From TrEMBL, chains A, B:
Protein's name in the database: Putative pterin-4-alpha-carbinolamine dehydratase
Protein origin, superkingdom: Bacteria
SUPFAM superfamilies: PCD-like (SSF55248)
Enzyme Commission code(s) on record: 4.2.1.96
Organism lineage string: Bacteria, Pseudomonadati, Bacteroidota, Flavobacteriia, Flavobacteriales
GO molecular-function terms, A-Z: 4-alpha-hydroxytetrahydrobiopterin dehydratase activity
HAMAP family to which the protein is assigned, alphabetical: Pterin_4_alpha (MF_00434)
Annotated keywords: Lyase
Organism in which the protein naturally occurs: Christiangramia salexigens
Family named by the database record: Belongs to the pterin-4-alpha-carbinolamine dehydratase family.
One Pfam family per UniProt: Pterin_4a
Length: 96, 96
């Protein structure tokens, strides 16, 4: 899987509101109603990540969820990260 | 809920292998077989945290899980954190 250039990444990020590129990874964060809502979304993301065999670097405190995506083997961001980012967006939208 | 003193915390930590006290919180980390195993444990912890109405500050990357526990209202570590820490230990032991 080829690492995307910064130009390619920034072009793609135009379709991803609330996502940024920094330190060789994509980043976003979400705020939910409470812990249960946050973990419900995390569970859906976990199943999707496992299906894609591509996993997030993520952290949670109560209703807050922070996610970073990168492709370890490529030492940067690849199409795999955008595919998972899109799935995450779809899940969050569907559960709002 | 009263904040515990550093002496009280260190005394209690003698019963918690792999846990440390720093920056007003308890910290530990676990390594599992893979993402699925890590998230399975996270799910069990999530239910327990919700039942206790006390939630972890935690992060996961693939098979690694980092957990910090503190009591926001007390600006430090309380009995609540040790109660959740004990539940986490029980869950991890039961799933190994």
């Amino acid at each position: 899987m080829k690492r995307l250039t910064e130009e390619e990444i920034n072009q793609k990020l135009k379709d991803f509101e609330g996502w940024t590129y920094a330190k060789k990874a994509l980043h976003t964060s979400f705020q939910f109603e409470n812990f249960k809502e946050a973990f419900t979304v995390m569970t859906r993301i976990a199943f999707e990540a496992e299906a894609q065999q591509h996993h997030p670097n993520w952290g949670n405190v109560y209703n807050e969820l922070e996610i970073s995506l990168s492709t370890h083997d490529a030492d940067g961001v690849t199409e795999k990260d955008f595919k998972l980012a899109q799935a995450i967006e779809n899940i969050v939208e569907a559960t709002n």
